[in-house]
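tool=predict chain=A
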Amino acid sequence: MNEAAMETLGNERFAIGQPVTRKEDPRLIRGEGRYTDDLHIEGEAHAYILRSDMAHAVIRSLDVSAAKEMPGVLRVLAFEDLEAAGIEQLMSGMPLKNHDGSAMHTPPHPGLAKGRVRYVGQPVACVVAETLAQARDAAEAIEVDLDPLDGVSQPEAALNGGAFKIHDDLKDNLCLDWQFGDREAVDKVFADAAHVTSMRIINNRVVVASMEPRGLIAEPQDGRLLVHIGCQGTFSMRSGFASALGLDEKDVRIMTYSVGGSFGMKAPVYPEYLPVALAARELGRPVRWFDDRSGAFLSDFHGRDSICDASLALDAEGNMLAVKVDVIGDAGAYAMAAGPMVPSASFNKNLPSVYKVPMQSVRTRVAFTNTTPTHAYRGAGRPEANYVMERLVEQAAREMKIDPIELRRRNFIKSEQMPHKSSAGIEYDSGEFDKVLDMALEQADFSGFANRREDSKRHGKLRGFGVATYCEITAPPGKEMGGLRFEPNGRVTFITGTLNYGQGHDSPFAQVIASRLGIPFDCIDLLQGDSDELIAGGGTGGSRSMIYSGAAALAVSDAVIDKGKLLAGHVLEAAPDDVTFAAGRFTIAGTDRGIDLMELARQVPTLANFPADAPRSLDHELTVGDFASTCPNGVHTAEIEIDPDLGTVRIERFIAVDDFGNVVNPLLAAGQVHGGVVQGIGQALMEQSVYSEDGQLLSGSFMDYCMPRADDTPDIEVDFHIVPATTNPLGAKGCGEAGVSGSCPAIINAVIDALAPLGVTSIDMPATPEVIWQAIHSANRAQAA
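tool=predict ok
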């Protein structure tokens, strides 16, 4: 970070680098948060979505006549109504191509089913009534004649030649056939390698289960459409609505309040939003729709879900030569938003991790299945890639009888080798992977693990220690807004296009501005949730917020200082070149004459006789961006104990040492790690969306889908090793998704380490008690034989 960016106010407790609590927490704790479902607009009608209860069927008829006559019903919509209104169907929008150069197959996803349903939960009709109860009752009167078709829920089966086609206009169920790397050259390296480790590694499908399910209120307002909705960025959501509805972007306004969780899931426009918006426009009144938890399980885009046949080639000394992965991803019934990108381009970028593996080949085939579409879920390909690499490294070490810690060190990219271009073509600008590993092992007391393992053995338990290194490639270059507005009430508003949906943006952005401008921390407000206020905005995702909005806060602060020097010179009757700024005050150099920034902002509206080149306000807005991706990295360790009689896993200790570059607020960065680790614990040990062969969701509620609770998690110990990024003004690297990338492989490696003495060398997520118990007893039977 440059000196100007790091300028702080002495020992000010709100300076950059201080662990400041979240500004919004007192309001939320008092129950004063304003989530979308808390909003009620006078005259609002209520929408209910009728969903398909079949995974694959032809719609022979859809009779809504009885529903239209039900009490309170205002409108009943089917696909034909959307089509008549010229409303477009949803498309992926990702510019991915097949390995032969042809475009990815992206059949449009209709807002309401057109002729056929392709997954359980797909919207079929929308009923709008005066009350929600009336809309529900009317939906039950709709007669839908569905003619069942064969369904397929597993991507491998979907790609078999005999599988029933899900989309008639395609020749098969292949969504994307993507290739990176010179496969022929990589195969030759494998043929000549001293050792090859090969594994099949599964990343289980998960539901997002956000605190507040999806919902919106669509409101016609002065010839425009105002949409109140929880999302990840109002600017991009505005574009999505305008495109789908056939409107100009200026005719759509998005308002977002407290969001209640997203993790990627609430970023895109969903099918249900289209009939709700149309109904609002046709009725000329607000229309409200909110999903319930059962509907969310069925229709919120799911995460993960890939099968990887992965191989690692090494020489006789354990130096990595090449990595090769064949991925089968599951798009679900439609290729939605980032879904196909996750197991292909994003996976590929992150596969090399912290290792100097010279070559890689990744082939990804993404299948259509009769399941809920998949999308980006916290990490969006980064956790999947790091998981595959760490599983390969552990297995290779075991097969080659090399200590796994030593094998990692042998293949680390060294700090003196930075910048380093990975085999995925990504440039790493900075990192000290050896030092991060040393810190993690020391904090975990790895040297004392053998004694703790023996103690567990004496008590009839199995103890394991798992290590996982990771490196992530954050969001690609983009643009972001920074605006500062000095309000008449003496407060200052920072405007930016990222969006806080739980991360706690208010405090760190205020820290950057307070440190640079000397504005009181408690006087700084954050405005993100109104698309009308933005001139650009990439939203929050890909661990980009501090990199982009933090840089925007710095840039707009510097612009305010430049403006302030001109205005202060006018007020103080001095040449602007003689005016200096420090600690929130403009001063004439060499004198004690000056004026505070906030006082200057208060006086500006009353000033007269402005010089021709002087601004009329300290307010300013600008855009920054196109920063190269950063490379947050770290080492996570998990120490676990297994009860062999029950197969249960207890996480005794979890250590996370992360390099996030310069950390603006270590308290909030640690909180982000905590949340990611807990999500990793859930995926590693308990969470899985399970479908029947024909596409019925068998884990459709919290009664049969297990989520981690407080007593499933240990105290997660977090520390930082700071190596500033060179790619952005703050030197930040991003931290929002790192917890998942490190925790899944650390936990599974620990489970395998505990079971290895029994002969168990591989286990897939989720490692539930049943899975572990069966692995133990299978190993015992094998040893007995």
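DSSP finds 21 helices and 28 strands in the chain. The radius of gyration is 28 Å.
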